[in-house]
Amino acid sequence: MMRRGRNVKIIVPKLPTSIEFAETCRKRGIPVDRSDLIRADVTGARQSLLNLIRFFGTNRAPILHFHTGDVCLPRTVVIAMGLLRLPPAFVTIQSPYSHLSPSSLRARSWASAVARRFQQVICPSRHSREFQLSYGVPKERVQTINNSVDLSRFSFGDPDIVRNSLNLSAETPLIVFTSRLDHQKRPLEAIKAFKSIAARIPDVHFAIVGSGTLEGECRAAVAEANLEDRVHFAGYQTNVQDWLAAATVWYVPTESENFSLAVLEALAAGCAVVSTNCPGNDEVLVDGDNSLLTEVGDVDAQAAALYSLLTDDNLRSKLKHAARAVAQNYSADRMVEAYAQCYRDQKSV
Fold first, then answer.
1. What are the two backbone dihedrals, phi and then psi, of residue 120, each rounded to the nearest 5 degrees?
2. Percentage of residues in the chain with pLDDT exceeding 70?
3. Model pLDDT for residues 22-61, shown as the tens digit of each residue
4. CATH class belonging to 151-330
5. What are the extents of the domains in the chain?
6. In 10 A of CB 194, how many CB atoms?
7. Are 95 and 128 in contact (CB under 8 A)?
8. What stretches of the chain show up as alpha helix (H) in DSSP?
């Protein structure tokens, strides 16, 4: 947006997890602030109305765009917007789940707030858009703009960096998982699937790139299976493109997505993908075409898919080629143009 002549400022909560993001923005010349007036955590931190009034009072702009990991913004945000008579805003909804009942007071309140206070609710996936419509959000205020991937970054990872760090040869089969270790991504099922094929392919290794609440349970499961020398916990990594480039197969048995960034990154890297036919994934992954898909929770089927890709060079090559082709549809330029069109179309409500 800055290259298009817009004045842009990004504001994120002042959390340890936002430090690296802010530094990345600064390196790219993007103005960014980390504010302690807004809160965020995995449990849904409650916002302070007074702090929000202070925040909005010192950060006025003609276009205000929120991003939330929930299906709606907190009521305190809407109240603060009304008290300060802010212009109608935009909001991007990132939650892969719908936890509101369409008939609930909360859902009806959100639909009413959108009609009064928001230009557009932007959803990365079609199923996310359906959530919003089910709450009663006016259909003319909801649109789908898919997430994007940095093609230039993820198309050119260096596999040697990773394989040398793991002391693996270029020929050693390596399954790579790049995601959070939480219940949504089902990493314990990934370990079970790996265990089932480890005896059949004695030299295969598994790299888990990410961290989260289930890391302790995952480590315990690996130790119980006596696979500690073949499962590598890499933790949070900033060079995900190198891990993807090193992957023989990329695998995440997720249960639901809102158009997964990890999936787009794996496709852009030209990975042979094994995942699940869950909401969100089903809008970009096609079984037998650009990936192998299984039903959520079917560990045996996931193990079979992994084995097929690890042992069938032709199938793996076919999926890798298709993955790169599909990723071209989700460039950052396309997403930016879609957002820019939203801003151009803004009107009084």
1. -150, 145
2. 98
3. 998 998 899 999 999 998 765 567 889 999 999 999 998 8
4. alpha beta
5. 37-148+332-344, 151-330
6. 27
7. yes
8. 19-27, 49-58, 75-83, 105-117, 126-134, 151-154, 159-165, 187-198, 215-224, 240-246, 261-268, 299-311, 313-327, 332-344
Q: Are 300 and 190 in contact (CB under 8 A)?
A: no
Strand order in the sheet with 89-93: 65-68, 89-93, 118-123, 142-144
- Residue 5: what pLDDT? 83
Pick from 326, 276, 311: nearest CA to 297: 276
- Phi-psi category of residue 20: left, alpha or beta, with phi > 0 → left and psi -120 to 50 → alpha: alpha
| Percent residues over pLDDT 90 in the chain | 88
Kindly state the tokens that stand for 207. Answer: 């790299």
- Please report where in the chains the tokens 């089927």 appear, as a residue: 301
In 3D space, the residue among 264, 99, 94, 245 whose CA is nearest the CA of residue 179 turns out to be 264
Question: Could you tell me if 180 and 210 are in contact, meaning their C-beta atoms sit under 8 angstroms apart?
Answer: yes
Structure tokens at 309: 């890709």
Q: Is 245:158 a contact under the CB 8 Å cutoff?
A: yes
Enumerate residues 6+ apart whose C-beta is below 8 A from 3: none
